[in-house]
Write a structure and sequence with these properties.
Oligomer: single chain
Order of helices and strands: HHHHHHHHHHHHHHHEEHHHHHHHEEHHEE
Shape: globular
Radius of gyration: 26 Å
Helix content: 55-70%
Number of helices: 24
Length: about 575
Amino acid sequence: MTRDRHTVLDPRTSPEASEDVLPGAAPAAPTAPALHARLFARPRRHRRLLVPLAVAALLLQMAVAMITAAVEQTPTIDEPVYVGTAAVYLHEHSLRLNPEHPPLGKLIIAAGVAAADPHFDRRHDGDQGHVGRHLLYESGNDPWRLMLWARLPVIVLTLLFGLVVFAFGRELAGAASGLGALALYAFSPDVVAHGSLATLDVPAAGFTLTSVWLLWRARLRPRLCLPLAGAALGAAVATKMNTLAAVPVLLVLAGLSVWRARRTTTPGARRRLLGRAVAGAAMVALVAVAVVWASYLVVDPRLRWTPSPGEVPVVHGLRGQLAGLLPFPEAYRDGMRMQFGLENAHWEGFLFGRHYSGSLWYYLPAALLVKTPLGMLALWAAGTVALVTSHQLRPVAPYLLLPTAVLLAAAMEGERNFGVRYAIFVPMFGAVAAVGALALRRRWVPLVAAGLLAFVAVSSLRTFPFYLPYSNEAFGGTARTHERLHDSNVDWGQDLGRLADRLRDRYAGQRVWLVYKGSGVPSYYGIHASDPRSRPERKVRGLLVVSDSSVAKARGRLARLIHSSHEVDEVGHSITIFRR
């Protein structure tokens, strides 16, 4: 391995060279190697600047992509809920809204909401969806401005997680591999798409990755890194409850890091070392629990929580016992019960043209196969194999592969087949795992890796600024994603503003019939339309505008209306315009 790579795995084995000079001795005449070093010192210094410049360039293009998406997209289905809840946190210090998700992610969004300083109507009392829509559309606020400010903290956080990806990759295999990992992260259409939204998926996954990185670093500096890893783990658990599945794995990794940091061959010391490993894992757990409690206390120091009658379902069996044993506030435990209740509800899915009831265990792997650039899939696969087979990289394999596998298995067990956002941690961890392939010492590796990275970049840039409905070239590209997937994979209500522009520019004065799946209010954007499902089919004449998720799941009257119409246009690869 190169010196950088060796430094990462055990920096204690790569001491810096030093010179011993006797006091008062005359300086020796410079040797030929010394003269060569002086002559080329400045170019090397310039080459060192290339790495931070490359990092800045990759993050800059990612920032441009995310900010463009944030500016152009109208609220997605979940965003008004989180933005409205954030406003309630700021003005009422109440936990009454959106208890099924912990507060930290919404507190992050609240930073942007506070900067926007919207008018908040304290007199309005409704459910979380109504509160969000009232704040955006019925309180005299500008929804474009408010949504941009709400999204900006998540965008900044997504960029910071990019630095974690780079640092992790550099420590494993040097600066070039770190840049490769960052490139995969920065050009991931899914990370860009969901990192530009005021939602919780990217923050939760990013905090989990940060915790894993700090646990890896704890092998060398356990006293510093273990508490920080616990804080990052707590931040993940305080953002989304699905990260709880990774907690046992990360606690085992914490103990493993302490064991490797202080390992000894003395037989009598092994028991003490085991005790220290257990203590290290306990420290991580305690700090994580403290962060969760702190996130609730920030919202309401008195932790007032009184659920409405019937709001919290009764959960029996192992799930109910698990929710009751969690060392978190009652609001968190009730939120967990609500999540279990949602899992028991009836849901529908759509995959490869098939509309089905319930869930498919292979839905997420299949969706990832469609929505991940082909070069990225190849580097993930090669990197995973290299991590398992390479003696020098094998120590990091459990840190990267086990949390990803456990989180993916837990997500695949879920009943809601709504999109790859439930597995957004895969492209994050996968970017670092690809370092295994980038670090291979073969002459052909740099050329092949550069080609695959370029393929990823081109594929990502081609879909700009429509990142949410992206699919790779093997499945027809972004324009055909709606034929295979639905919901947040394609159409999450983000293109209502673009639809308004299209109708105004091309179809002014024509009768519009609209079936829109989203949380936006069409009339606010100047779209005056009727619901075709409420009228006799013979009276539906003009433009029939349907969100692609509704097209995918159309039945009965809507299906007949679509089949008797012809397609004339599409908007954002998520809304189809038919003419009747």
